[in-house]
Design brief:
The structure is a single chain. With about 500 residues, the chain is α+β, with helices and mostly antiparallel strands. It is about 35% helix and about 40% strand. The chain contains twelve helices and 16 strands. It has a 16-stranded antiparallel beta sheet that branches. About 5% of the residues have low confidence.
């Protein structure tokens, strides 16, 4: 075959190109294949030198070259964690676990990162998955204990920490410290201090010893502040422009006097709150309130109340069973007594946000007999309420309550269903001065026809209070308060308006 010059040139060009491709494939292409590994190794070197920003750039470059590597994803997670980007770290650890083959060591790092993010539900899910993968290390049990401790499952947390130190003796001091924290949260202060002292005495120069000393000091300070016994006494001057609840309208042939008067109020409160171990708690209280008018002595009031309040703390909620007895004297004569029991459940909705629900029963009996049977106010009272409270700043609080009452009286003129809406707001306005605001609407629907007026009674009572609370000195408080109430009733004799001004001082012990 005769080859032309043109054909020879084409053949020569083809051979040169083919040789270049062989050279590229044999020498240059392997360099590209291993480029990712080079970026990764450089990243590891920078990570070990704690140059985390440089390591992050190198690992991301390696990930672009080799996106299927679980090892690169794992080291990216470690680096993001060191730089404080826990959200990104968690994503990379999940990626390292989900790749094939997965990075087993990423499980524990992911759980710890989710704990730091306060995503306890996800942390618990991954703890279960880690156990299914065969993890049973001391660190796994330690992390389980940390999650349980943050959820206030203190006894379960203690068991997990005990497993952790049994598996890994290097975790003994750290686990004992967390067990001491769990005991303190359960108010088992003696056991907590014993463990803290063992940590300090076992290795006084360890990094954990100063923390143990500080925590022990915190326990001591809190115990000193906690008062199992306490009391307060108060005295106040009060001016009331409608002591006898004089109707706003005129009653033909009836003249009502003595509606305006001043009085002296004295009060006493004493309580005992024993410090119980575990989740149980208990408190009891005695209060005395006396209001003595200068002229209208027929309305002098003396009220004594005893209350017992056992309860159980579930962590995110608490159940209480307050039982209360009150006895009232009017003008020196026994007037009425009330015994009540009111189980209540408080639920932690969010930090500083509580929900409340309660049901209750009360028995009221009037000591003096009624003028006639239809006016008998002896009663069985059934109660239900819903509430919400929010604490803010250091001493601020907001409380909202709806309460339903069924007052089942022996006399038909007083039987009623009540709906009470109440709002209370405490606002700190200066270091030792707070503003107190409250408002209430009480709607009563009387269920039976009045035996005298021949209609069913219904009324709305509006009331509000504004007050200043000033801490003059430690345990000495000055109170200034204005109260106004207005009742609107379809029976005019129950319509009234009332204004009360109070200035008092209280001493606490």
């Amino acid at each position: 075959m005769n080859l032309t010059v043109k054909n020879l040139r084409f053949l020569l060009s083809f051979l040169i190109s083919f040789s270049f491709l062989l050279f590229f494939h044999g020498l240059i292409y392997p360099l590209f294949l291993y480029a990712g590994e080079n970026w990764f190794q450089k990243g590891v070197n920078e990570y070990n030198l704690e140059n985390y920003e440089e390591a992050l750039e190198l690992f991301n470059q390696a990930r672009r070259e080799e996106s299927d590597s679980s090892e690169i994803a794992y080291y990216l997670g470690l680096t993001y964690r060191q730089t404080g980007n826990f959200q990104e770290a968690a994503q990379r650890f999940m990626e390292a676990i989900q790749k094939n083959p997965f990075a087993k060591e990423a499980f524990l790092e992911l759980i710890e990162t989710l704990y730091d993010l306060n995503d306890l539900k996800s942390a618990k899910d991954w703890l279960i998955k880690a156990e299914k993968q065969g993890f049973s290390s001391g660190r796994l049990f330690f992390l389980e204990g940390m999650v349980l401790l943050k959820e206030d499952h203190n006894q379960e947390a203690i068991k997990a920490f005990q497993k952790a130190k049994a598996k890994d003796q290097f975790l003994k001091s750290s686990a004992d410290f967390q067990i001491a924290v769990a005991y303190a949260k359960d108010r088992k202060f003696k056991r907590s201090r014993e463990l803290l002292q063992a940590i300090i005495q076992g290795d006084p120069d360890s990094a954990l010893s100063p923390l143990a000393r500080e925590y022990e000091a915190d326990i001591e300070r809190n115990l000193e502040k906690y008062k199992q016994w306490g009391a307060s006494v108060g005295v106040a001057y009060q001016y009331d422009d409608n002591v006898v609840l004089k109707p706003t309208g005129v009653i033909p042939g009836v003249v009502i006097t003595g509606d305006r008067d001043s009085s002296i109020i004295t009060s006493l409160r004493a309580y005992y709150n024993p410090l119980l171990e575990g989740n149980w708690f208990f408190s009891n209280q005695y209060t005395l309130y006396a209001n003595s008018y200068f002229n209208t002595t027929t309305h002098n009031l003396l009220n004594q109340t005893f209350s017992l309040n056992p309860g159980y703390n579930f962590g995110k909620s608490a159940l209480t069973l307050p039982v209360t007895y009150s006895h009232v004297w009017l003008s020196g004569t026994q007037y009425l007594g009330v015994m009540s029991a009111r189980p209540s459940l408080s639920i932690n909705l969010l930090p500083n946000h509580l929900g409340h629900i309660s049901v209750g029963y009360a028995r009221r009996w009037m000591v003096q007999p009624a003028l006639f049977s239809d006016e008998d106010r002896d009663a069985h009272i059934f109660i239900g309420s819903l509430g919400y409270s929010h604490s803010f700043w250091e001493k601020g609080s907001l409380n909202l309550v709806y309460e339903f009452t069924w007052d089942l009286t022996d006399g038909k003129n007083w039987e009623n269903n009540g709906h009470r809406f109440n709002l209370n707001l405490m606002i700190p306005i200066r270091d030792k001065v707070s503003l107190s605001l409250s408002g209430e609407l009480f709607y009563q629907d009387y269920t039976r026809t009045h035996s005298i007026f021949g209609i069913k009674r219904n009324e709305k009572t509006y009331s509000g209070t504004i007050g200043l609370i000033w801490e003059l000195w430690k345990d000495v408080t000055l109170n200034l308060q204005y109260y106004r109430a207005k009742a609107d009733s379809n029976l005019f004799i129950y319509d009234y308006e009332r204004n009360v001004f109070t200035l008092g001082i209280q001493f606490s012990f």
